[in-house]
TrEMBL record:
SUPFAM superfamilies: Homeodomain-like (SSF46689), Regulatory protein AraC (SSF51215). One of its GO terms (molecular function) is sequence-specific DNA binding. Keywords: Activator, DNA-binding, Transcription, Transcription regulation. The keyword Transcription regulation applies. Residues 195-293 form the HTH araC/xylS-type domain. This is Helix-turn-helix domain-containing protein. Gene3D superfamilies: Homeodomain-like, Jelly Rolls. InterPro entries: AraC-bd, AraC_XylS_family_regulators, Homeodomain-like_sf, HTH-like, HTH_AraC, HTH_AraC-typ_CS, RmlC-like_jellyroll, Tscrpt_reg_AraC-type_HTH. The lineage of its organism: Bacteria, Bacillati, Actinomycetota, Rubrobacteria, Rubrobacterales.
Amino acid sequence: MESRPGMEGRAACGPIVPYVRDASFPVRSAWRTAPRRLLDYLLMYVQEGEMVARVEDREFVFRPGEFCLIQPGELHALEGPSDTITPYVHLDVFYNPGRERSFVVRSGRVDVSGVEELMQPRLEAATGVRVPTRFVPAHPARFRDTMLKTIGIWQRRDFLGQLESHHLASGLVLEILQAYTPGGVDSPDRPEFLNWITSHMSLHLSEPLSVADMADRAGLSPSRFSQVFRDRFGSPPHKFLLHLRVQRAQDLLQHTGLSMRQISAQCGFSDVHHFAKTFKRISGQTPGSWRRLIN
């Protein structure tokens, strides 16, 4: 593993007790920071615009919806070539009794000698989990919302706000580690990974659910999501969803007096023709015939 100033050979670390040091929603025109090394972690979300991060000897271009993690001691420089909104959180992940004395290293400061005892260990050194600079949470939308909530609450600067922001930061750290720990709770390799998806489908049958949307919620690419879904449920997601729509339609046909148009809409079909065609293909009968037979 690459060494960093003042941390060679250090493996010991305190317990995981996240501590938010600074957080904000900067709205900036073209901007840049000079190279620096941090004592803490910097978590960033690109909400609007484009951000370039040069970390050690690599360059990353971040676009809207992407997350960036700068770890302690990494030589880096950041740039927004145009107007950007880049919410960020500076935080300690591991407890350090001297963390009240720690600080956000200013732009341009590369030499952090003399404050080595305040530098946080990197995740891989402390936990064995390697998290990349451009990381993808298991549930990006949920992670984004939690991060933005953390920033807003921390900025209240009152006791309860500080306490809640540290609590929310624990959830952020947990989700990052789960996403990159082999066999972690949110790993696609675990059989329970998609247990939530059938409930999500059932609750949103009247909406135009797409594989891309569901894959985004699961933190996977559409192709990977389809593969994991098929392995878990024995059917492609689109086919599984159509069967759920038809099952809902059968329930409504049996227990309500709703019209075909109303049932079609409630079950998420684009129109009555599509509803009738799909229903007959899956059940072997038209909706009208099925209603007469069951009643």
